[in-house]
Each structure stands twice: as structure tokens, then as C-alpha cells.
Structure prediction request, 387 residues.
Amino acid sequence: MYMNNFEFYNPVRIIFGRGSIARLSSQIPASSKVLMVYGGGSIKKNGVYEQVKDALKDYEVIEFSGIEPNPKYETCMDAIAICRDQQVDYIVSVGGGSVLDASKFIAAGSKYAGDDPWDLPAKGAEVKDAIPLGCVMTLPATGSEMNAGAVISRVSTSEKLYFGSDKVYPRFSILDPSTTFSLPPRQTANGIVDVFVHVLEQYATFPGQAPLQDRFAESIMLTLVEAAAKIAENPEDYDARADVMWCATQALNGNIGLGVPQDWSTHNIGHELTAFYGLDHAQTLAVLWPGVARFNLTNKQEKLAQMGRRVWGLSGSDEQVADACIDRTEEFFAQVGMATKLSAYQVDAVEAGAKIRERFTQRGVMAQGERGNLTPEIVEQIIVARA
Prediction:
């Protein structure tokens, strides 16, 4: 068994720590016309808005608010129209991963020469140019602050699709853990679960010759477990919040996935649950990952057993530990406040299974997972089992 060949590139400048928002102006060229993109009112309640506005006081700033938790194509198109009309030079995303994903689509869509920027996620159209962007991250979860990908939803077609390009790497990402103190428990839980499953998608597959990546992934999971307990006791524990924020970045900046097999079926299925039923992204992951892992227990046994021993401290045979590892992981999701069954969200599992099977069949998505063994019919079975 050899480590898979890989090529790695990541140009993002990370500016981490208390007071780092004040450094925002040093990262943007003078005289730039800036589009400041954000979501609802949370950044105005926790002081982030004022800090960003103060840092950008010497720039012409156009504000664009209203980005949704699952950023919508329709909303992004309004921002694209502003960028084109006002000839925006730079985009600053202020918020969580959804705001940054939207900003990446806005940056690329504003420069897209085709008929419809939806071609970028829907048809895999090439991103030939994009408005440069940076971010102030306030909700650690997606890792979007140090990667080149984004996920966008379209209401009219009930779709949630991914696109990526080196052109939409953030030029910089500012991460101040103190901005996360005021996150409500639901958002905190979403972030922790999202990060944890990002690790699982790259780790819980089958063995490769990549011990460093394995131990890096395990260290992220262990750190999340420890930090989650501390945050539950004290939401303003700076060190614990900093750990979660840095774990989120490290989980999806490319490092732990180098040279190893990856899954991502939980994410792919989860995107459809969000598209059809509006569930939070992390809610779908907490529901689906145990089902995917249980179906693939034999294929994933060696890695799940390794995880069970190294992360959860379990003992027994590989079969016993792998089985218990799935249970223990599901328990952890519940401990941080995340439901793990579709019934908790009033979603009919039979209906959902049929709709998503049909969606994957129509798209020709016939073989998901690291083994390519999750057909649309198997996906339906997994969903139904998560009732």
C-alpha cells in the first residue's frame, strides 16, 4: 500500500487571534471599492460590524446583507448585479462559511462571461477570473476560509451544488475566536459536527500508507471532543473557542486528505436533504454519517477500529471496536446537542429516500463513496434506516 500521489497548493494568509480584525485594512489595496457581504444582524449585536467598518473607514464600502444559512443563488445574483454595475474591486466576507461560500460565488459569478453563473456549479464551467476576496470568519465550521470550494443552493430547482476554483481562494482570512463567544448553542453544535464529519469523510475510509495524515485527523477529533466539553461549561472560554476555530480550518484546508482515499457521500446526500427539506447542513451530517458508516461497516472496519481505539479509547476485536465507534460517534453528536434521526426534524424518511434516489438517478450519480458502492438504491435504504 502506497500513499496516493498528490499536488497541494494553498495560498491563503491566516491572521489569527484577538484584535485581528483591526488588521483588515492592511490586506486590501488602497483605493479599492469594497463590497462587504454579511448575513443577518448577528455581527451588529456582537460588535464585529463596528470593528469591520472602522477597519474599512478609508475605503468606499458597499454593504450587501441578507445571505442565508444555506446561501441562495437568487440572493447572490443580486450581489453580482451590484458588483458589475458598481465595478467592485474587492469583496470582504463577514460571517460564517455560508457568507464566505456566497462571496466566492459572487466573486466568480461577477466575472463570468457566460449566460448564467449557475453554470459554475451546475455544469462545472471554468472559473477564468474572479474578484479578489478576503474574509472575517465568525462561525467556524466549513473550513471555507482556507479552501477554494463553495456550496450554493437554488430555490427554483431545489438544488444544492458545489463548485471550486483556485481563483476563489481567499487572499486572507481573519480568525478572532472571541467573535464566536455569542454564538447560540445551535450554531456552536452545527460547527462542531460539521468539522468532525469533515474529518470523518477523509479519515474513515480504508487504510492507506499515510500515518501522519491519520494522526493529524485523530488529533483534530480529539481536540474537538475536549473543546466541546469546555464550551458547554463556559461559552466564553477563549482557548476552547480558538481550538474549535483552528480545527475547522485544518479539517478542510487540504492537509488531512493528502494522498488518502476520501468518501464525501454523507455530504452529497446531506446536500439533497437540505435542498428538499431545509435542514441545517450539520443536521444532515449528524443524521446520515452513522447510517453510511453502518452500511459500510465491513469496508470501513479497519479505520473505524483504529479511530475507536485512538479517539474513543475503546477495546476489543476490530469488529467490536468498529461497531462501537459508530455508536460512540453518534452519542457525541447527541452530546453537543444534535439530533441524529430524521423524525426529530419531522422529515418522512421514506419520502426523502425516494426523492433523493430519483434525484441521483436523474443526474447519473450511480456510485458514491470511497468504494463506489453507494448506488441510488442503497442511498435510499440508508435514508429510510435513519427514520
Q: What stands out?
A: Strands lie at 13-16, 33-38, 60-64, 90-96, 133-139, 149-154, 159-164, 172-175. The radius of gyration is 20 Å. The chain has two domains: 13-179, 185-385.
